[in-house]
């Protein structure tokens, strides 16, 4: 099973971009613990170091629906802004969405058809005499490139493969960006008020819990006091 997931700050401010980077780290830790393979296939850096506007991840594993059930939706981080100390806002929201109906384009030399032809223009004694130029076509997408930089057919073939891979990857990225835009158009604002996860503090603890045990100690003291009265 494969899923493509986008973690995005949406149109949120710099604080949301910081939260996006933090959520990515926690998300990938859980992905590894879930024995799920992943590949980051697109990322848009934020306006400051260590921040992200969005990141898109390909997941491969079993029972991904159950794993993602606790992630898909809005994520809330509660804390004071690390960029604007006097800012009164304390709740910052980002979104985790699934990009459905989009399959990652695989690239393999087995899917390439090569054609050789004579080079055109200046280029040495082999020009127009030997078939050194190479045209490469990626059959699944129909994308093609032409290479005649070298006098060697082998070198031109290597160049053609490299250029074709870049072109096919670029095609996939454009499709991905369009799908991300379509997804975001359906979520012009990250849903607030009912986050699937809440984090707190600069250490980004999940669902922060008071570990002082003060409340528990008071309960025990009260029970002990009542037991003493009962004994008397």
Automatic annotation (TrEMBL):
InterPro entries tied to this protein: Pep_chain_release_fac_I (IPR000352), Pep_chain_release_fac_I_sf (IPR045853), PrfH (IPR017509)
Coiled-coil residues: none
SUPFAM superfamilies noted in UniProt: Release factor (SSF75620)
Matches recorded under PROSITE patterns: RF_PROK_I (PS00745)
Residues of the Prokaryotic-type class I peptide chain release factors domain: 118-134
GO MF, one example: translation release factor activity
Pfam families: RF-1 (PF00472)
PANTHER family with a match to the protein in the record: CLASS I PEPTIDE CHAIN RELEASE FACTOR (PTHR43116:SF3), PEPTIDE CHAIN RELEASE FACTOR 2 (PTHR43116)
Family: Belongs to the prokaryotic/mitochondrial release factor family.
Protein name: Peptide chain release factor H
The species this protein was found in: Chryseobacterium kwangjuense
Organism classification: Bacteria, Pseudomonadati, Bacteroidota, Flavobacteriia, Flavobacteriales
């Amino acid at each position: 099973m494969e899923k493509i997931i986008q973690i995005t700050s949406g149109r949120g401010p710099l604080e949301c971009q910081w939260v996006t980077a933090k959520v990515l780290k926690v998300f990938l830790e859980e992905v590894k613990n879930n024995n799920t393979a992943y590949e980051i296939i697109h990322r848009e850096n934020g306006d400051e170091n260590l921040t992200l506007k969005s990141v898109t991840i390909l997941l491969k594993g079993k029972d991904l629906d159950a794993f993602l059930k606790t992630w898909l939706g809005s994520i809330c981080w509660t804390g004071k802004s690390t960029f604007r100390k006097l800012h009164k806002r304390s709740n910052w929201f980002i979104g985790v969405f699934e990009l459905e109906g989009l399959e990652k384009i695989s690239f393999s030399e087995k899917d390439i058809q090569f054609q050789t032809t004579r080079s055109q223009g200046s280029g040495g004694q082999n020009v127009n005499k030997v078939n050194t130029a190479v045209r490469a076509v990626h059959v699944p997408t129909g994308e093609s490139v032409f290479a005649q930089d070298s006098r060697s057919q082998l070198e031109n073939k290597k160049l053609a493969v490299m250029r074709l891979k870049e072109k096919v990857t670029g095609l996939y990225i454009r499709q991905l960006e369009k799908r991300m835009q379509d997804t975001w158009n359906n979520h012009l604002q990250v849903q607030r008020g009912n986050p699937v996860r809440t984090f707190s503090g600069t250490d980004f603890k999940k669902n922060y819990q008071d570990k002082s045990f003060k409340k528990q100690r008071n309960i025990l003291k009260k029970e002990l006091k009542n037991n003493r009265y009962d004994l008397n």
